[in-house]
Amino acid sequence: xxxxxxxVELLRYPQLKGLPVVIGGGxxxxxxxxxxxxxxxxxxxxxxEAFPLLRDYVGRGVxxxxxxxxxxxxxxxxxxLMKAAKLCPQAIILPVDFDEYRRYSRMFKKVITEIAPxxxxxxxxxxxxxxxxxxGGQREGGRALARLIQRSILQATGLTCxxxxxxxxxxxxxxxxxxxxxxxxxxxxxxxxxxxxPLPCRKVNGIGPKADEKLQRFGxxxxxxxxxxxxxWLIQNFGKATGAWMHEVAWGRDERPVVTESEPVSMSRETTxxxxxxxxxxxxxxxxxxxxxxGKVAEDLQRKGYVGKTIGIKLRYDDFKIATRDQTIEQxxxxxxxxxxxxxxxxxxxxxxxxxxxxxxRVGALVRAGSPEAMLTSAQxxxxxxxxAAAAVLATTASLF
DNA sequence: TCTGGGGTCCTAGGACCC
DNA sequence: TCTGGGGTCCTAGGACCC
Length: 401
Known about the structure:
Layout: H1 4-12, E1 21-24, H2 28-35, E2 63-66, H3 81-87, E3 92-94, H4 98-115, E4 119-121, E5 127-129, H5 143-157, E6 163-165, H6 169-175, E7 184-186, H7 192-196, H8 209-217, H9 223-228, H10 231-238, H11 240-250, E8 266-277, H12 283-304, E9 306-317, E10 322-333, H13 336-347, E11 356-364, E12 367-368, H14 379-400
Parallel strand pairs: 1-3, 6-7
Antiparallel strand pairs: 1-2, 4-5, 8-11, 9-10, 9-11, 9-12
This protein binds a DNA duplex (18 and 18 nucleotides) through helix 3, helix 8, strand 8 and strand 10.
C-alpha cells in the first residue's frame, strides 16, 4: 500500500491532500492538538490552519509514514521527529491510529482474497499473492490481474497500492518498488541482469544495514557485484547459511511458497517513556507501567485465544542499549498476574543502575488456548502430545486407503 | 531534545538426556 | 579416569522487517 498510514488519514482529512503530512509519535501533545480541532462540523471541513505543525509538536518519537509531498524534504519513515522537524517544520503532524489502519488493512486484504485466495500476510500494509492458479493470472504476464486488484482496492477503500509481478517472492518484492506510487511492474526471469543487478544490495529483502556494510567493505555494492562472487567465497565470509542464501538471491532464485496461514510465536507490549525513568527514583511509576503492560499482553492473548509459557522482559537504557531476560514457567498461561510475577522475577536479574527509556513485556512459546498442549506442563509432555497428534494423522491417512 | 512498536528468525553456549 | 556422539530446551543477543 502506498504511504499507507498517511493515505488512510487523508481519507478522513481530504483537505490535507497535496500537503506535506507526517504520521508519527502518537505523543500526547499531538493527540491533544487533534482533539482540540474545531468541533461540530465534518472532519473534512476543518480548516488546514487548525492542524498541528511538526515544528510545534516535536518530542520523543519517530515518523511512521510521510506523504509523497513531504518526501522531497528528505523526511521518511523511521526518522526521529526532531530531525524531521528541522527538514520540514511546516509539515502537518498527525498521531498514529492503529485501529483505523488495521480496519483498512482488513478491507484491502478481503478485496484481494476474493480475487486471488492464495495471499500471504506480511503485516498491516503488505502481502504476497500467488497468481499461478487464478483465472487470467498469466495474461500480460500478470499485469491484467494486478490492474484488477489495484482497481478493486481503490474502489473499496479509496487507497492506492503498487504491485510487482515476478516469478518469485524475492523478485516481486523488488519489482513492487519500481513504480511507486500506484504503479504496476512486471519483472521476468530474463530481466535479472538489466533490472535487478544494477540495484544496491540493500534492496534485497533480508539484507539490512549490517550485512550491507560488510558487503561494502568487500567492495560489493550492487546485486550484480554480489552475483559475480563465487558461492564458496560468500560461504567463507558470511557463513554457510547466509553465504549460500546471498548467492541464490543475487541470481534471482527463491523457492519460498506463498504461506497463507501461520500461528503467532509471541505477543508483546512495550512502551517508551516520555522521560527516562530510574528503577529506584521512579519505582512507583515504573511499577504501574510494568503491571499495565502485563495486563495488556494478557488481554491480547485472551482476545486472540492463546496461552504462552515463556515470559520475558525488555529494557532499553538511556544509552539505547537493550537487555532482555526471559523465563519459561511450568504451565501455559494468559493470566495477567502470573505473567506479572514471572516478569517480575526476570526484572530482578537485569542491571537497573542506568536510567531506562523503554520497558516491554513478552509472552512466547504460544499455543492455542484449549489445545491439548496448553493443558500440559513439561516439554516432554508436549513431545508426547505431538507424537500422538502425528500418530493420529497417520492413522487417519491410513484409513483413507 | 536524535532514534516507536510489534513481530520473526538465527546463533551460540550451557544444561540435560540417552 | 577419560572420552563419545547424538538430541532438545532454555536463554541472551542481534539482525531484520513492516
